[in-house]
């Protein structure tokens, strides 16, 4: 295969879930596109970080400043649901069942991949909790994935925040198969998990 082709395919392989074959398919598909569409894509990618930023409060995606959840005065400020990624937040938000606030950690503790607690937004979570409990007691809902790293993270956070005043810690409950991913859970499963938190 051509050297340039391989070079571009390698860039696609840096995305989650994209292997060499899928990457080659992406490059071939792009080759079929009109020049204008490629320019548009290239421009959007080049400006991604300028156009889309993270919410200063919860690290959800936001076009400017606070995200739609944090800037909504109708949200319940006594509940803080902690997820690994923005895509998990999206899944919960789509159910329409949860009316509280979120905190996006930015991943889960995974020493094999070099992700340690200090690489996650745990200090930021601590500050957030401190601000919220200044007004009222807070339920911290641990909604990391039911995978090994997600469970490790939940245990770490439970330890970290346990025995502090004005904080109740709960974990998403039954229905989520162990090893599964919140992002792909269907609405009924998420509803069960939210309602049976413990
Ligand atoms: Zn936010």
Describe what this molecule looks like in 3D.
The model has no long low-confidence stretch (mean pLDDT 91). The strands form 2 sheets. A 4-stranded parallel beta sheet has the order 4-3-5-6. Strands 1-2 form a two-stranded antiparallel ribbon. It is built from 8 helices and 6 strands, in the order ααααβββαβαβαβα. 42% of the residues lie in helices and 14% in strands. It is globular and about 60 Å long. With 198 residues, it is α/β, with parallel strands linked by helices. The chain has helices spanning 3-12, 20-31, 35-46, 48-51, 86-95, 122-133, 148-161, 187-195; strands at residues 53-54, 61-62, 76-83, 100-104, 138-142, 167-171. The protein starts with a helix and ends with a helix. The chain folds into 2 domains: 3-51, RecR Domain 1 (Helicase, Ruva Protein, domain 3, Orthogonal Bundle); 53-195, Dna Topoisomerase Vi A Subunit, Chain: A, domain 2. The site of zinc ion (ZN) has 8 residues, from loops. Zinc ion binds next to loops.
Q: What is the CATH top level name of the largest domain?
A: Alpha Beta
**With helices defined by DSSP (H or I, 4 residues minimum), what is the helix count?**
8
Q: What hetero molecules are in the model? A: zinc ion
List the uncertain runs.
none
Rg over alpha carbons: 20 Å
How much β-strand is present in the residues? 5-15%
CATH topology of the largest domain: Dna Topoisomerase Vi A Subunit, Chain: A, domain 2
